[in-house]
Write a structure and sequence with these properties.
This protein has 80 residues and is an all-alpha fold. The protein contains 6 helices and no strands.
Length: 80
């Protein structure tokens, strides 16, 4: 699950837009990306949605960046 549609399906378009517009999300770390991936794999979508919403706002913004694929796209641009 790493597309904008996945994020919109989980939290709604407006919430995703607001989270992606946040200028100060939690800083990227490989550990956190892996942690979020593990949570997404082990929890049903509704439980993952609620878990993400229970995180502090900067963390939630990074989660949205991960799930939507925005973070992946940014990291790929840095590589090329």
């Amino acid at each position: 699950m790493t597309t904008r549609q996945d994020a919109d399906d989980l939290w709604g378009h407006d919430v995703v837009e607001r989270a992606l517009a946040e200028p100060n999300p939690k800083p990227f770390s490989r550990f956190y990306v892996l942690f979020v991936g593990d949570r997404a794999a082990e929890l049903p979508p509704a439980a993952f949605r609620l878990w993400a919403l229970s995180q502090p706002w900067p963390d939630f913004c990074l989660i949205v960046r991960i799930v939507s694929g925005v973070l992946r796209d940014e990291l790929m641009r840095e590589v090329h």
